[in-house]
Write a structure and sequence with these properties.
- With about 250 residues, this protein is mainly alpha-helical.
- The chain folds into two domains: about 1-30; about 35-245, MetI-like fold, CATH 1.10.3720.10.
- It contains ten helices and no strands.
- It has helices at about 1-25, 35-45, 50-80, 85-95, 105-115, 115-140, 145-155, 160-195, 200-210, 215-245.
- Helix 2 (about 35-45) packs across helix 10, helix 6 (about 115-140) runs antiparallel to helix 8 (about 160-195) and helix 8 (about 160-195) packs parallel to helix 9.
- The two termini are about 15 Å apart.
- About 30% of the residues are buried.
Length: about 250
Amino acid sequence: MKNAKHLLGAAALTLLVWQAIAALGGWHEALFPSPAAALSGLGELIADGALLHGVAASLMRFAVGYISSVLIALIAGLILGWYSKVWAYLNPIVQVLRPISPVAWLPFIVLFFGIGEAPAIVIIFLAAFFPVLLATIAAVQKLDPIYLKVAQNFGIGTPAIFTKIILPAIFPQIATGLHLALGTAWVFLVAGEMVGAQSGLGFLIIDARNNLRADLLMAAIIAIGLLGLLLDSAMSLAERRLCRAWGIQGGK
């Protein structure tokens, strides 16, 4: 209930500031729409089915890119965190690649994967990969040795120690990387969909811009923000449930 009040208060404040900027700025609504015009545009997108189709396409691409990235980053992070000598050689390479924006790779992504669905998925994959990888490696390297001693006493072998001991123990630390990766990947989803995609929220923004429909453009931006909030909330809920299932403290 408290969070709902905070959310409603933030939404009301945002609308008031937005309306004040639109009213005092002196711009035509074709250039900067008021909240009422943007909400009307949102209703138009809902009525003709464009928003539902765009959301479905974007969520499909996001799920494929994000889930595959998280799984590979988790596995690689567990292995590299465990074999610290291997990570010592690879760390400089990762630190060079990590700051590079996924969009910077776009010409090569198009070259290798073509246009359409693939570039968006690859960009999402790259955006989510490094936060999860580095969070996992750091968590494994900081793991309390007592967990490993308990595993040895119970005769747990190396393959099982990752899933039964290490992963549950470090999950609260990994969760931070998962949230960061989710937000980053969602931001770059729009950029990926602007490269040849014929559907999705990014396509809606490009289409609205090309048709000089600032109200539809702002409506698509609102939809992106609200979906990002819902995705982060869903992640927090899943995190809390997983922490309870493993009997550990954690969760947002």
